Known about the structure:
By secondary structure, the protein is an all-alpha fold. The protein folds into 2 domains: 9-92, no CATH class; 104-260, no CATH class. The chain has helices spanning 10-35, 63-67, 82-101, 105-127, 133-148, 152-181, 188-198, 203-220, 234-259. Helix 4 (105-127) runs antiparallel to helix 5 (133-148), helix 7 (188-198) packs parallel to helix 9 (234-259) and helix 8 (203-220) crosses helix 9 (234-259). The longest helix has 30 residues, at 152-181. It is globular and about 60 Å long. Residues 47, 49-50, 52, 72, 74-75, 77 line the site of zinc ion.
Amino acid sequence: MQYDLPALSAAVLFLGAVLGLVFGSALGCLVRRMGRHESWLRGRSHCDACGHTLAPKDLVPVFSYVALHGRCRYCGAPIGAEAPVSEGVLGAVFAAVVWRFGLTLDTLEAFVLCCCLFCISLSDLETREIPDRFPVIAGISRAGFLLLEGAGWPGLWQSLRNGIILGGTVLLISLIMDQILKKESMGGGDIKLLFVLGLYFSLPECLLLLILACVSGLLLVPAVHRHGEVRIPFGPALSAAAVLTMLFGQQAVTWYLGLL
Ligand SMILES: [Zn+2]
């Protein structure tokens, strides 16, 4: 991923944010339907309380929620804030990506990764599972972009090596933890996700990602704390860490190495 960013107008950042909101809304709907084993494409969105089919004006990301004061237009039932909050997060992330990488291939690659991480986080929060298809898409996308950028076989190999090192190291640690705690410390889906994230980053960035994942995991515990059960949501924590590493990893590593 490259450094020099062209001067970007506020309009481009705004367009990035709007794109993020739109993808956040569409992907949020996709993940919810997947969780309920409904068809992805067929069937109109409807209110969970009254079943009324939602009109386009009810489906504008974030704005419909705010305009309707968080209630269904037809029956007045309260609507959860999860959808607008997650849409807003993806909008902000897309704007940050445009700010960081400008109008480049890197931005497109980052958009694909962010969309996969968004679906992974929502699935993990909703069903506590990470469907294989999202890490697989992220992995294939990485290979495709490496080839497009002309990294060739050496680039692919280096990426694969980093994935194996990151995924393998955490797998080893989690197996040892399983023995000590006498229960599963980390799910298989989390390990697979780590392997895929390793494909995207240099080894120093992978280390940074692990540190950030631990911090964000602990910060997210209160957010998913329900029914007295403490659970670290690794999917969202790893996703947050990956986005931060993507945006600031190179700078952080350069700064740290400068200190030594
Ligand atoms: Zn309703």
